[in-house]
Amino acid sequence: GAGGPPYAIYLSHRPLTKEQYRATLTMTAIFSISMRVIAFTVTGLVDMRVVISVLAVIPASLAGVAVASMLFRRMSRELLIRIVEIVLLATGVSLVARAITL
User: Using the 8-state DSSP alphabet, how is residue 47 labeled?
Assistant: First the structure.
């Protein structure tokens, strides 16, 4: 639900370096997710169980960011875009399969 696929598709067709692509995609995701968190908090949808769950996954999230940063430095822009395309395709196939089985 953060709207990542449209951002990723749009930005992958812009003449950005891989660093610019990553920074822009990161900032759009942070902004979008922050707005959702604020909206959920204001409407009372965030309770203590959610907060505890978020705190529990922070270490794994930081480890994932560290590994991704190491891999990112080693790959070309073309490889990055190819990986994004594959992930978007897999996500789309998964959503279509889920919609068909409902």
Answer: -
Among 16, 24, 47, smallest CA distance to 4 is for 24
Alpha helices, H only, 1-102: 4-12, 18-42, 48-74, 77-101
Task: Please give the Cα distance from 42 to 98 (Å, whole number).
Answer: 31
pLDDT in tens, 8-57: 888 888 999 999 999 998 898 889 888 888 998 899 888 888 889 989 99
pTM of the full predicted structure?
Answer: 0.69
Surface-to-core class of residue 4, CB atoms within 10 Å of its CB (0-12 exposed, 13-18 middle, 19+ buried): middle
Count of beta carbons in the 10 Å neighbourhood of residue 8: 19
Distance between CA 40 and CA 1 in Å, rounded? 13
